[in-house]
Amino acid sequence: MRLGVNIDHIATLREARKTFEPDPVKGALIAIQAGADQITLHLREDRRHIQDEDLFRLKCELKDTNVPINLEMAPTLEMKNIALEALPNTVTLVPEKRQEITTEGGLDVVSLKDYLKDYIKELKEAGIKVSLFIDPDLEQVDASLEVGADAIEIHTGEYANSYGKNTEKEIQRIRETAIYAKEKGLKVYAGHGLNYENVVNIAKIKEIEELNIGHSIIANAIFLGLYEAVRKMKEIITKARG
Ligand code: PXP
User: Fold this and answer.
1) 215 catalytic per annotation
2) For the chain, which domains are there?
3) Ligand 1 atom at minimal distance to the Cα of residue 216
4) Nearest to 107 by CA among 77, 76, 81, 85
5) Confidence of residue 9 (pLDDT cuts 50, 70, 90)
6) Residue 56 alpha carbon to ligand 1 centre in Å
7) How many CA atoms lie within 13 A of 165 on its CB side?
8) Atom in ligand 1 nearest the alpha carbon of residue 8
9) Is 49 among the residues known to form the active site?
10) 179: helix, strand or coil
């Protein structure tokens, strides 16, 4: 199982002072040394953490490695143009609302089908793989297939929020969605709200081949250091996978 480390919140800390440190690109290099298989970053429309320059610097720093870049972004024209210039390995399309603290739900692929078909086609023609961040919902899987996505990333936020209360019900939804999507030929990833404890159930679902994790790793990095925070997550995932 691959671990994508999301470096956004290194940039959140930097932007709190609008200064140069901590540098998310430096964080990416440490995360890779500690076992990250991918670097994930979300260029938000309001640029509250990652800046355009971070993306291009990251691309430059990783060019001699085989570590892929996963760019999360809203499906807007502005973001498409940036992706076509930066050429990350993967684009993950996410819904975005300005007032939200973090991504609150999956992309409604069903109602955006016509728009997304052309949007995704352009990205794929440029050699970028396209993943759609969706809620664990079979209808959204069908729509993702129809619009030509390569992969889905299952939103685990509800699961994370319900952890310890409704865990089994939420895990069942995620498992069913993962099995269904894999059978249909999509690659299956997952993420949002995962931490050292709740990641275990998700890592056991064998249809899911990649996790993208940010907040909890960066939060733990304050106490453990970034290298150890990433290494520990990778170890827990690997152990859970068996
Ligand atoms: N995957 C996607 C698509 C996201 O939007 C985010 C948050 O930026 C994450 C994973 C990581 O979520 P968290 O920071 O809660 O680990």
Assistant:
1) no
2) 2-241 (3.20.20.70)
3) 16
4) 76
5) very high
6) 20
7) 5
8) 8
9) no
10) helix
Q: Which tens digit of pLDDT belongs to each residue from 199-236?
A: 999 999 999 999 999 999 999 999 999 999 999 999 99
Q: Output the pTM of the full model.
A: 0.96
The answer to whether the beta carbons of residues 52 and 25 sit under 8 Å apart is no
- Per-residue pLDDT for 99 more than 90? no
Please tell me the distance from the alpha carbon of residue 35 to that of residue 150, in angstroms, as a whole number.
Answer: 25
242 CA to centre of ligand 1 in angstroms? 24
Alpha-carbon distances of 240 from 3, 14, 83, 198, 199, rounded to whole Å: 13, 34, 34, 11, 9
69, 41 Cβ separation under 8 angstroms? yes
Residue nearest to atom 9 of ligand 1 (CA): 192
Q: Structure tokens of 9?
A: 């919140």
Whether the Cβ atoms of residue 9 and residue 218 lie closer than 8 Å to each other: yes
Q: What token pair was written down for 51?
A: 């800046």
Ligand 1 atom 6, closest CA: 192
46 half-sphere exposure, CB direction, 13 A CA radius? 10
210 lines ligand 1 (CB under 6 A): no
Average pLDDT over residues 29-46: 97
